[in-house]
Design a protein that fits this description.
The chain folds into two domains: 170 residues, Periplasmic binding protein-like II (D-Maltodextrin-Binding Protein, domain 2), CATH 3.40.190.10; 209 residues, D-Maltodextrin-Binding Protein, domain 2. 45% of the residues lie in helices and 14% in strands. The protein is built from 18 helices and 15 strands. The strands form four sheets. The chain has a five-stranded mixed β-sheet. A hairpin with a 5-residue loop joins strand 9 and strand 10. The longest helix has 27 residues. The chain is elongated, with a radius of gyration of 29 Å. The N and C termini lie far apart (88 Å).
Length: 436
């Protein structure tokens, strides 16, 4: 018969075992199943465009609760330099960007720093959701390089008071009508000094978006802009197709032409329009507020970018807008793409464009936004807005400006100027390919 001491030891051992079992069971049942654990998503976004408060309002209550999105507003004047400095410093720096804003035309310039995703299902959704120019700009095959936040495009700003006083009822829809209206709207003195300009065309340095306007004119005239990776077509094709639209552009600054309405002594086009001394100019939706801030009493309207024909089967205007991309050295690339996918959601896109009053990139939202009295014209144009793959948007724009100025100053004829332009762009593409 076991002694009392032995029984006591047995009971204590059994009790310890039972206690351990209870603790283990309690721990196991207190844990959520692994499948219910929600991973936290933390990303930092850099951008020069939106104020931090507005950005937070645009996405608040729409992202899942496990998403922590930190947006840092950067100085627009130093944004490119800030990005390049961050890329050089590496991803371990404080507040390094996981996602950053990029202009659609700058994708080639930033290509070495981008992390695309290749998800056929996501690509299908992207293609069905966004307008064509966003698909062309931010995808390659089924690879997606970023997500558009909106799509802006060139439209015609016209001074309603000047049109009324000249007896012109409606804004021009075609370039032929532009020419007719310019002759009526332009005022010159006896020495042919321009006192009031009809439209800001024909120059570079004092015309806002001169190169964008020229790109749009060339595309309307079926100039084959691309030959893969930002190259222009052969010289013969460029000269054959580009001479007419470029000469048309220059006519407005040629004193010998009936449409002479611009010269290099004129004030900057946006300022001149705000002063009421310019009847028409071409610009983007974000300039509406700038013009109103310069002159709150200016009576002006916005209409579609003029076309070659009123019933043109293929309308064209030039697109200029921003999107979001993922840095390829980010320490949180998967989280960044998870966040970017959220930005592609229709409700997020709608809220963003509503908060910031920008034209949508969503195909299905255009019919609704077209009724907006301020940005409806720009929203409607999103369906046919175009861009082209520029090897380096900053450098190529400068090349085009130099070409315009050289021809205007009689330093060269148009055809040799186009030849030099093509040579310089193709050399730039070759140099970039060697670096990459």
């Amino acid at each position: 018969m076991a002694s009392a001491e032995t029984q006591k030891r047995v009971l204590m051992a059994v009790g310890a075992i039972v206690l351990i079992a209870i603790v283990i069971i309690a721990i196991l049942f207190s844990r959520s199943p692994e499948k219910n654990v929600v991973k936290a998503v933390n990303v930092t976004i850099w951008g020069p465009l939106d104020e931090e408060g507005g950005f937070n309002r645009a996405i608040q209550d729409l992202f899942p609760p496990n998403y922590s999105i930190r947006y840092i507003k950067k100085d627009p004047t130093t944004y490119d330099e800030d990005l390049l400095r961050a890329f050089a410093m590496g991803p371990n720096q404080p507040n390094a960007p996981d996602i950053f804003y990029i202009k659609n035309s700058a994708l080639s310039r930033y290509l070495p720093y981008l992390q695309p995703t290749n998800d056929p299902a996501l690509y299908t959704a992207f293609k069905n959701k966004f307008v064509d120019v966003a698909i062309a700009d931010f995808t390659d095959g089924t690879a997606i390089y970023g997500a558009p936040l909106f799509v802006d495009s060139l439209a015609l700003f016209w001074n309603k008071e000047l049109f009324n006083s000249t007896g012109i009822e409606l804004p021009p829809k075609t370039w032929a009508a532009v020419q007719e209206d310019v002759e009526k709207l332009t005022k010159k003195d006896e020495a042919l000094n321009i006192q009031r300009s009809g439209i800001s065309l024909g120059g570079a340095k004092n015309i806002n978006h001169a190169t964008d306007i020229l790109y749009a004119l060339m595309m309307q005239n079926n100039v084959p802009m691309n030959k893969g990776q930002g190259k222009l077509r052969s010289t013969a094709q460029i000269i054959l197709n580009a001479t007419e639209p470029i000469n048309f552009f220059f006519d407005f600054s040629d004193p010998k032409k009936a449409v002479y309405t611009w010269n290099k002594q004129m004030n900057y086009s946006t300022d001149l329009f705000a002063e009421g001394k310019l009847a028409m100019t071409l610009g983007y939706s974000y300039e509406l507020q700038k013009i109103r801030s310069k002159n709150p009493y200016l009576n002006f309207e916005v209409s579609e970018f003029p076309q070659l024909k009123e019933d043109a089967d293929k309308k064209v205007t030039y697109a200029d807008y921003w999107g979001l991309v993922v840095w390829n050295r980010s320490l949180h690339k998967d989280d960044a793409w998870a966040a970017l996918t959220q930005f592609m959601r229709e409700d997020v896109q709608r809220k963003y464009t509503t908060v910031f009053r920008r034209p949508t990139a969503l195909r299905h939202y255009i019919p609704e936004q077209k009724n907006d009295p301020e940005i409806g014209v720009f929203a409607g144009q999103s369906l046919y807005a175009k861009s082209w793959y520029i090897a380096d948007d900053v450098v190529v724009n400068e090349y085009f400006n130099e070409m315009i100025e050289a021809v205007l100053n009689k330093e060269t004829q148009l055809q040799p100027a186009l030849q030099r332009l093509e040579d310089k762009i193709n050399l730039l593409v070759k140099q970039r390919a060697q670096v990459e």
